[in-house]
Amino acid sequence: MIITTLPITPSVNPNIGTFFSPFTVDFVANLEGLKAYYAFNLIGRRHVSLQEACCKLELHAPRLEKIGITISEENSWLDSSEKSLAEIQSYVRQLYGLRILKKEKRIVAQCPCGAVEILESRLNNALQGKVLIGNKCSLCHGEVSKKTQRCLLYTPSPSKVHSSSIWASKEMASLSVAFDKVSLLVSRNRSENPEVVLGGESFFLDVDFFWSFYLCCLYERNSQDEICIVTTHRTLRQALLACWLLAQVYPSSPESRLIVLPTIEIVPARPGGLSSENSIDDFLESLDTFSQRRLFLANGLGLNQKEVALSSSLLYWVKQSIPFPNQIGKVVASIRDTAISEVNPAIVKSLMSKLRKNRTLSCIESSIFRAILRDSRTP
Ligand SMILES: [Zn+2]
After folding, report:
1. Can you tell me the distance from the alpha carbon of 109 to that of 39, in angstroms, rounded to the nearest whole number?
2. Are 349 and 301 within one domain?
3. Cβ(377)–Cβ(353) below 8 Å
4. pTM, whole model, 2 decimals?
5. What is the dihedral of CA 249, 251, 255, 259, to 10 degrees?
6. For 308-326, what is each residue's pLDDT tens digit?
7. 275 and 239, same structural domain?
8. Contact 149/108 with Cβ under 8 angstroms?
9. DSSP helix/strand/coil, 300
10. Do residue 199 and residue 240 come from a single domain?
11. C-alpha 44 to ligand 1 mean position (Å)
């Protein structure tokens, strides 16, 4: 099995929330002996240019180093690479051949900046209150106009996806119903987007749809190994779409697994304490070692919770817990699901409290703790 993030869009000043997914990928990969991947979204209208996106990634990589993650060509996937483009174009042609992707003439509603570009029939339910306020785009404030044009439409066919948390399974079930046999517009009027030619006709693909094929690329790159995806509550829909695409391109692929992280809020313990509003750099600098930073992040892994609130006083307790007593026990060959479901803030808190009191850890606790700290010492 391999484990991967969803494609992360690097930004100049990210908040701490963006670090929980790569941390969890690295942590579970250590715990279970899996191959870890970090995917990045460098194309599309979230970036001024590809060059600018690459600069943002260059700023992002040293921050990941500070929590013990080194990005390399072997463990990363970029939507901007020539290889990704060629692979995804071939997947698109395959789905077009299977009539899962179809060319049709439809009425499209679009705003001047392109943030709104949707089938007229889905205008009322899909974007209202988000990017669309009434008949205007909330980003460019321009009015939405309607035009009949040639479109590329995708029909999802929701397949079974495994998740360890009950609340996520329920949301996944309702998303499966909402997207079953629905036609989604996946072509765009933006000529900077990745292009595909189908039956002599050229289309520019929606960037989110384009990178959703990344699981297919990773599946092929890893000799068709099973995939576990770390996502968050907010990106659950995109993660599911990527899993469904994998099952449509490779019908015999094993069921994908999702680890769905909660929304994490940092609450200042005192006036002036760090909060979710602070930049990631403030958090990275407030702790001294990558072990301390990883132990802090581990407190946010509430896999059975939709939301986790962390107090900024944890930063102090994390410093007190390390260096920890050198009494880590034998690592058990943990059963995958047990170990993943064992990971929750309550366990991490109890680990920290035991370490502070210099108590012995159980086998499962030891293996979790070693994976959090990336302690590779043999027992
Ligand atoms: Zn707009």
Report:
1. 31
2. yes
3. no
4. 0.88
5. 10
6. 888 888 888 777 765 544 4
7. no
8. yes
9. coil
10. no
11. 14
